[in-house]
Write a structure and sequence with these properties.
4-stranded antiparallel sheet; alpha+beta; 6 helices; about 160 residues
Length: about 160
């Protein structure tokens, strides 16, 4: 791992520890894998954007590491499927996503194509029942309240 990537990772880990935010990288990695599966050229573009906006932004421009990763995740979701990104509060009310999101908000991308499931971009450190149910319904196509109440990682099981 190159020194800039190590420095960016270190700054993100420090920010996560200081804020208690949930790590946004798993959602980005999942999106990158899907982009790679679809097109090597588009994947190369996304990796270039990662190096430029995430690594350079965090290490050279002193950008907020958590917000930088979330913004990258929003752009990756848009690459996967054009659509609209929303922020969902703890009560399940959605609004258009805007920077910076509140730490308690779920960030989810809704593709324009109704045949494509929603793409969770970022979760609050402790998602509410309404946020868990939102992810289960929009990203997984089902919701079982008992599972929503128990689910520790609503981003998993995406198909």
């Amino acid at each position: 791992m190159d020194p800039d990537t190590q420095a960016a990772d270190r700054r993100l880990e420090e920010a996560l520890a200081a804020t208690g935010a949930r790590d946004p990288r798993p959602a980005c990695r999942e999106a990158l894998r899907e982009i790679r599966r679809r097109s090597e050229d588009e994947y190369a573009e996304a990796v270039g954007e990662y190096r430029e906006s995430v690594i350079r932004g965090i290490t050279q421009e002193d950008a907020d590491p958590v917000l930088t990763w979330i913004e990258f995740g929003v752009r990756l979701a848009g690459r996967l499927a054009p659509g609209k990104t929303l922020a969902v509060d703890g009560d399940g009310r959605a609004r258009d996503y805007s920077r910076p999101p509140a730490g308690s908000e779920l960030i989810v991308h809704l593709p324009n194509d109704r045949g494509i499931r929603a793409i969770p971009v970022a979760l609050p450190s402790v998602p509410t029942l309404a946020q868990r149910a939102t992810v289960q319904l929009l990203a997984h196509g089902r919701v079982k309240l008992s599972e929503a109440m128990e689910d520790e990682s609503p981003m998993q099981e995406r198909t």
